[in-house]
Amino acid sequence: MLMQQIVSGLALGSVYALVALGFIIIYKATEVLNFAQGDMMMFCAFINYSLLINGSISVFSTILITLMFGAALGFILERGILRPMIGRPLFATVLVTMGVGICLRAIAGVIWGHQAKAVPEILSITPIQVLPGVPVSPFHLAIFFSTIAIVAFLSVFFQYTRAGTAMRAVSMHHLASFLMGIRVRRIFSMTWVISGFVGALGGMLIAPLTFLNPDLGWIGLNAFPAAVLGGFGSIPGAIVGGLMMGVCENIAGGYLPEGIKNVFAWIVLILVLMIRPEGFFGTYEEKKV
Amino acid sequence: MWDSGQHRKRRQDEKLEMNKVWLAILLAFTAILPFISSSYMMHIAVMTGVAIIVAHGLNILMGFTGQVSLGHAAFVAVGAYTSAILTSKAGVSFWLALPLSGVAAAVLGLIVAGPSLRLKKLYLAIATLGYAFIVNEVLVYWESLTNGTAGIVVPQVSFFGYALDTGHKYYYLVYTLVILLSFIAYNLSQSKLGRALMAVRDSEEAAQSLGIGLVKYKVLAFVISAFYAGIAGSLYAHFITVIAPTSFTVMLSIEYVFMLVVGGMGHVWGAVLGAILVTLLPEGIRLFIRFLPGWLDIADLQQFVYGLIVIVFLIFEPDGLYARWLKIKAYLERFPLSPRKQKGERVWRRWR
Amino acid sequence: MPCDGNVTLFGRWCPEYSNRNSGAELTMIPAAPVLSADENREREFGVLKVESIEAYYGKLKVLIGVSLELTSGQLVAVIGANGAGKSTLLKTIMGINQAAHGIIEFMGQRIEEKDPDQITRLGISMVPEGRWIFSAMTVQENLNLGSVPLSDKRKIKEQLDLVYSVFPRLKDRSKQKAGLLSGGEQQMLAIGRGLMAKPKLLMLDEPSLGLSPLLIREIFRITKEIHGNGIPVLLIEQNMSMSMKIATYVYVMETGRMRLSGLPEKILADQDVRQFYLGEGKGRYVSRKDRWRGRMS
What we know:
heterotrimer, A: mainly alpha, two-stranded antiparallel ribbon, 71% helix, globular, disordered C terminus, C: alpha/beta, six-stranded mixed beta sheet, four-stranded antiparallel beta sheet, 13 helices, 38% helix, disordered N terminus
């Protein structure tokens, strides 16, 4: 029982980790907290759902199209809405992302309605015995491994490619990056594209775990504690934070009274912030006077 | 061009006179509004008044002190529930419950402020969001006290036996408080306390070096802000008469922040303008949408237009309405002359 | 012959670029060199031309009609006290601040409306005050970032080797985090990073700031070497005496204005400059005894 909860917690946590990753990639480069991340995820999940229901194309190309759509969505949002906000007060920018979230939710409501929809299963959710005594469903495994895959891919990208290094530079010092000749605005676009991509992946993975309706975007908010736990700065931090949150939440749901499960992540978050205001993996930048 | 001291003094006096005239006109308008409006409009006006009070409180916290709060609906909820429980279950008079609900919210503010002292912008924003979630969850699951999701029925207010049962009557109660609390907020912004709060906002390090205790002023800001929200919550509860946890969602908190940013953070008038605009916006959209074909889901379309307006507004007016008003005023004052070309430093200050 | 394709650190060795102080090479007259398109532009337009620019910080006017010219092969030093607007001048050229009025031309191209990244790509490298190195990255990564404007991999490698040969210390530490370097090494890294872009103009903002006298001398030697290898340098300095020694032309700034300009000899001969910047001249020295009595000598 406990084992199973941990396993499904890891699967849920992987999705949290993906959303947190989306937050962090944008935040590190642009200092904007993207409140629309969850809604981007929800929107992509709906696109995936429509394509699957339609059924005229293979599952594989469905996944591919959804991922491309996520990236395109990120690109369009950055170009159309966030680009004019560069250099504006940060808080206004964050509120703009909230506005984007509202709009995406409304559009999804208009197109797909508010009835909860069950997404066709690509892989079965019923558990099979992988290891003795640990029943794991193929879908949970898929979630887990695709998260690992994307994280590995991103780590390599940031560490070894020119664009990745430039992105890291932008996240450290905007003006210095300008002086290096890095096209900072293009980097901003790239971060949104990557976030959209990651969000699309997260959307496809979480939709079968829960029901699909426009309010799915609020799950994005649940990834905040995960991101903060990880220190809001590092990719491994986000992953560990997400997994921890998923497992904690599942176990809390099993053993603690009802009502605590929904906010358990937030309780953990506040307790952690009381002890370490910068999260577990964060480093505090001492501000110079 | 070079004003002598006297000249400048006289001009300031003139300005002050003008301000007084404008204020008098505004107050007169507020006083006679019920005589010229329907009960629907009164409903909106009361809700606007409640929003103005919350916006003032949030402005003290965010605009003056620079402490972000994405969970202000929680304070409103605590105020509303305190008032509701005291009047409906304990039989306390509204006139006692009103200040008590402010106090209850302030106590929550005190509790919230403690762990928030060390948190910086982003972390604080997320932590306050967390508090709001937790408070909402408590309201849902503490059924013996709050009736859970079913909500509480709140009695209506009477003033020396005279029932304030319609919007027209309740309006005067709300706007008396709005004017009083606005006045207090304005005086606060001009006072020593207000300047200390602003010093904390502008640079914590510099404020500390001037002997301004961060702990004291941050906690104070939270407490005052929560008190405002609590009062507003109480007023809201006794007007709507049925409250449930779903009335105080995250969306409401975000709406309050919208109000501040739309109006202009850090200005008392900005909070008022923002509260009015953001409360009226959905109503305006509803009026407009009636002309569209019915197959569009009205609620969704309303949400969409709402989000779109917020986005467009923030793109063109990120400093808020009040800042724009200041610019217009400066333009009018030197009307025949062209406005000064502002093209100096590029605005990259926030980029570390 | 020195100028017939003898490739050195920073391209072809052209003695005519070199410092007037290195007299020996100057006597050698180069055979008519084959000029590239860039060099032609350089000849035609000069490298950098700043014409009466004005800049603001908010409402405060910090640059008041500043003009400056830099032709190829020069090492121009801009000196002045704290707050004279020297750094603002560089930032304005770089596009970090925007000039409210005036013209900035780089090799015949107007750049005052451009963004810093575009300007860097055009060929100006700026080494900012405070260095702005990416301290969480390794030395190697920092240098690689400097080469972003270059696209050819071979060129990048070439440039990296050159930088390492100028700053052998950086090579020893190429795998270390840049934040762990000492102040002098960080300054070298910043300069090296600026050189990675193969700049047509190098702008140094107070490279000697916060360094020990020995390191200051080292930095100035390197600056001179860079200039001697054909890269025009715009140097912003407070260290008057040192910059006078290596500059070919000097501007003196004071409270947002260009006060003086000329060859170093001329500047050094100026009475006021001697008085204010070098602490020499008549009437400034007050003997202890006189100060005690409260009167000026």
